[in-house]
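Inverse folding, one chain.
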């Protein structure tokens, strides 16, 4: 018997027109849709004339529901996993089911589409070659500040989600940890009627939010500039020593001598020497 496929399908984060043709087609053809909230997804399904049966799959029932869904997949049924909005598993349920599907050697196929984090990053004007998605910060202030402190010295662009209930408090905590001059982009209600993309510095962002209560409503993505990389004086010294030695000596000898001069570990010095010589 052929086994079924688990389709992980992105749905619109606001504008229904962002629903892809392939996503609609697959949702119509599968045997079951596992939805984070069937009541929420019902309106979207009706809009696209999708009559496929739906079953609730959320954080409160995924432990019990996962084995049953895996059995249906093993029996040859195809199942689509969707969240309330955007790409499943990004701060949404689904990890347990996808992990179990892989463990059962089942096919898992993505149907890509809307994603608030990527959408915000793409319009942020901040570096996109390296970034880190960190999801929602904790609700309580102390835990939230400790959470942000973990990212204080990260040099990559940081992406956070936040709700309207905590956006002002959360930005204030960011300000305390990251400093007032760190660049940040607030993306609010992406693809919706009151979409806002505001680029500024953290110090100014807090004042801007507090000055307009309308900008405190909706769903938020905060894209924060990475920290400036600090030059390690020892590393700088090592680099200069290596460059001089490499002009006169082979890589191995130059590395050994540089390690003795600077007191750095031999393997780290040798690795840097290879980088400097392009080997």
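Residues assigned per position:
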């Amino acid at each position: 018997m052929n086994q079924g496929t688990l389709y992980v399908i992105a749905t619109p984060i606001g504008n229904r027109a962002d629903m892809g043709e392939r996503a609609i087609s697959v949702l119509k053809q599968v045997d079951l849709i596992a939805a984070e909230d069937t009541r929420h997804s019902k309106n979207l399904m009706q809009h696209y004339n999708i009559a496929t049966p739906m079953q609730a799959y959320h954080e409160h029932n995924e432990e019990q529901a996962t084995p049953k869904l895996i059995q249906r997949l093993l029996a040859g049924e195809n199942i689509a996993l969707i969240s309330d909005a955007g790409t499943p598993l990004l701060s949404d349920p689904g990890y347990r089911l996808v992990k179990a599907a892989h463990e059962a050697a089942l096919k898992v196929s993505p149907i890509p589409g809307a994603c608030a984090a990527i959408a915000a990053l793409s319009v942020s004007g901040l570096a996109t070659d390296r970034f880190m998605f960190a999801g929602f910060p904790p609700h309580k202030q102390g835990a939230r500040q400790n959470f942000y402190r973990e990212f204080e010295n990260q040099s990559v662009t940081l992406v956070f989600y936040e709700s309207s209930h905590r956006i002002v408090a959360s930005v204030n905590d960011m300000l305390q940890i990251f400093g007032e001059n760190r660049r940040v982009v607030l993306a609010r209600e992406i693809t919706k009627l009151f979409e806002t993309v505001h680029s500024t510095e953290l110090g100014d962002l807090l004042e801007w939010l507090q000055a307009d209560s309308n900008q405190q409503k909706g769903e938020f993505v905060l894209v924060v500039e990475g920290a400036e990389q600090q030059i390690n004086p020892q590393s700088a010294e090592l680099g200069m020593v290596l460059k001089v030695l490499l002009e006169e000596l082979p890589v191995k000898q130059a590395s050994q001598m540089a390690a003795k001069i600077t007191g750095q570990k031999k393997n780290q010095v040798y690795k840097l020497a290879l980088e400097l010589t392009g080997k």
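The CA atoms of residues 31 and 78 lie 5 Å apart. Residues 117-224 form a domain with the Methyltransferase, Cobalt-precorrin-4 Transmethylase; Domain 2 fold (CATH 3.30.950.10).
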